[in-house]
Amino acid sequence: MDILENILKTIKEDASVQEVRRGLSWTAVVSRRCGLASTMAQGGCSHEDTGGLEGNLTEMSALGLARYGLSGGMSRASLGLAAINSLIDVDPNRYSDVEGLKLVKELGKGKNISVIGHFPYLDALAREARNLWIIEKRPRAGDYPEESGTDLIPQSDIVVISSTTLINDTLPGILGLCRKGSVKMLLGPSTPLSEVLFDYGIDMLAGSVVTEKDAVLKSVSEGASFLQLKKNGGVRFVSIIRDYDDIVRRLTE
């Protein structure tokens, strides 16, 4: 959790927690803004590692909730990340509206691409890539199992990493497998829009900004999937790129 702890250290202003929603797919915390994180838990149970404070979460500050979330297992880590995302000072007008996978599709023509996590719309990316390797803990047909990452990630020109790796604490290990010069993206609505992540070698952040809180909270409460969340509206998907020219240079060397 060192990465999240370091993001937390950059947040100087606390806020009260106005609302917490814990849906089947998404966890939402409303403080300074509405922050999202994937709902995750060990062994498929959503309450096994929650400790004793649930039921009183809106009595905490957002920083307090974030620290509480980062002190337990994955269920609490989802809470902690949503709380962090609710506090990060975000000006959506600074960011590109280009969605992450579209950006990878533009940059990844003829390249080896690893995608950590199963995302929608990967068929179009597969048509552009030299090789597209989808690496999953629970592989579907055509996916590669998690252990294959040891061989495939070092061969990849671009590595697209689900932001759920911040919740299950697998991101540092994945970054350690990436070869020098490869381009790395953190992808998904859970992604913190924090430049601290650039210090860890990540080049692109593809995350979300909630623009209509009530619509998103309704989707969260009703167990909306990623595609349903997107269809229902209230979320703007944005990307932050550390140095686009440097990325292009590295991919063309």
From TrEMBL:
<feature type="domain" description="Putative heavy-metal chelation">
    <location>
        <begin position="105"/>
        <end position="238"/>
    </location>
</feature>
<protein>
    <recommendedName>
        <fullName>Heavy-metal chelation</fullName>
    </recommendedName>
</protein>
<dbReference type="Pfam" id="PF13938">
    <property type="entry name" value="DUF4213"/>
</dbReference>
<feature type="domain" description="DUF4213">
    <location>
        <begin position="7"/>
        <end position="88"/>
    </location>
</feature>
<dbReference type="InterPro" id="IPR025251">
    <property type="entry name" value="DUF4213"/>
</dbReference>
<dbReference type="InterPro" id="IPR007161">
    <property type="entry name" value="DUF364"/>
</dbReference>
<dbReference type="Pfam" id="PF04016">
    <property type="entry name" value="DUF364"/>
</dbReference>
